Amino acid sequence: MIIPDRLAGLRLDQALAELFPEHSRSRLTAWLKEGCVLIDGDLRKPRVRVEGGESIEIDVELTPVERDVPEAVVFEVVFEDESVIVVNKPAGLVVHPGAGNPAGTLVNGLLHRYPELTLLQRAGLVHRIDKDTSGLLLVARTLEVHTELVRALSQRRISRTYRAVCHGCLTGGGTIDAPIGRHPKDRLRMSVRSDGRSSVTHYRIGTRFRHNTAVDVQLETGRTHQIRVHFAHVRHPLVGDALYGGRRRIPPGGDQALNATLAEFPRQALHAAALEFEHPVKGELVTVQAPLPDDMVQLERTLSDMES
Q1: Strands 270-278 and 285-289
Q2: Angstrom distances, CA of residue 95 to CA of 23, 70, 113, 260
Q3: Burial readout 43-57 (b: 16 or more C-beta within 10 A, e: otherwise)
Q4: Active-site annotation, residues
Q5: Three-state SS for 106?
Q6: Rounded to whole angstroms, what are the CA distances from 53 to 5, 15, 149, 163, 306?
Q7: What are the start-end ranges of the H helices in the chain?
Q8: Most CB atoms within 10 A, among 53, 131, 138, 298?
């Protein structure tokens, strides 16, 4: 690998952290000190400044990095080869262990089904979706593939399309360009704020209902809760979103079935429906789709029935 010119002036350990985000900076620094990383064929100290254009050679024997326990967890694999896995995660399944969810996560299930993923951080996951969001997640099976896919994601070369159902009637597609950062008072939430990170969401109308809209959403950036925060910001929160949607909204004139469906929908109506990326080894374009889960099919069907 070649250090790109955009990293010129950074310390070597900082540049390596940018290029290999799947490894901690402490691990990369240790490799430098142990002589496992060569820059233009020579040993370098972690604090030396890079100029850009230097070649990097890393010679290490990977050892298991995951402390998470492999467990049999139910999830669907919709694409798989020797380099890449694409999972269709059901709503309600936590992606990786954390506070309150030490086990029973997708990561535990991946480690059980693919033992080689113990060599990768987070079992090779390239990105994440929320517990109550359903749909597609991309997983790398080797360190080299993970590095390339993380780079492709940061360079916006991986297309991610979602289906969402929001409150209110949108008149047309558009773009929400509003920076997102941690909420100043509630650490569990994100919010639109002037000092947040650049965040861009594109959307187009899927189906218009009387009081709701199904939208197809494409992420340009991938901030935490981005779609949910952006649609709440423009006053069209997602159906079922308890964190950003405020009080449950029941439209006037709705029949009993519609009111019950909207009031009882148990999660944010959001599904990661499609992924498109260049295969990191073969170079061919890979497109993977996941149909709407039953709960969202029923939601849209009930909203449609109200029109008749």
Answers
A1: antiparallel
A2: 19, 14, 15, 29
A3: ebebeeebeeebebe
A4: 130
A5: helix
A6: 6, 12, 21, 42, 61
A7: 12-19, 25-33, 106-113, 143-154, 226-233, 256-264, 294-305
A8: 138
